Amino acid sequence: MRVLVVDDHPVVREGLRALLTSQDDIEVAGEAASGASAIRRAGYDSPDVVVMDVRLPDMSGVAACRTIVERFPDIKVLMLSSHVDEETVHEAILAGASGYLVKRIDGDRIVDAVRSVSDGASVIDPAATAKLFNQIRGQSVGDPVFSQLSEREVRILELIADGLTNREIADRVFLAEKTVKNYISRLLAKLGLRNRNEAAAYMARRIADREAKYPPEDWIDE
Known about the structure:
By secondary structure, the protein is of the alpha/beta class. It has helices at 10-21, 35-45, 61-71, 86-94, 107-118, 126-138, 151-161, 166-173, 177-191, 196-213, and strands at 2-6, 27-32, 49-53, 76-81, 99-102, 123-124.
């Protein structure tokens, strides 16, 4: 099968190329370092699968995925990300992605995922699945106001609890820093909290309550 590799880091592209070309049944048809280039190369190289980073310098990988799938319906897109964000996973699926993996998984899993999406299957990283279940269960604990927060608002609260700055949060959730500030202001108002410290303490209590009620060993598959 023919694969197009899309990532703005040359070292990552080189590593993916080496991994994929080591397989007898896979050919790397081309590489791209941006979303716009990926869209052009998808037309020029006619890949069966595009392996694409979620975060690109000119547009999100999700936006590039949506355009590729719309223009070239036979091409499958496998998204790669450095971390799991529930809302990004959801957006990628809606954009037509056939899979979503976290980069830290081993090479064999990436190769297997490329083959699977080429065959028409869908692949979601277990870490993404686990976090989605965790969030669903967490929303059932207590606070009716919390249960009305969006996935992105919950994610921002988690990152505040982790001690990240607005700029660091913006990098994690692929938003402008000013947008993150607006999110945090609205969150504080919704939850009746005065500042980030109260928000961090609030989320830390929720995480502790959730883990006490739903220990990981109760819901993660063996």
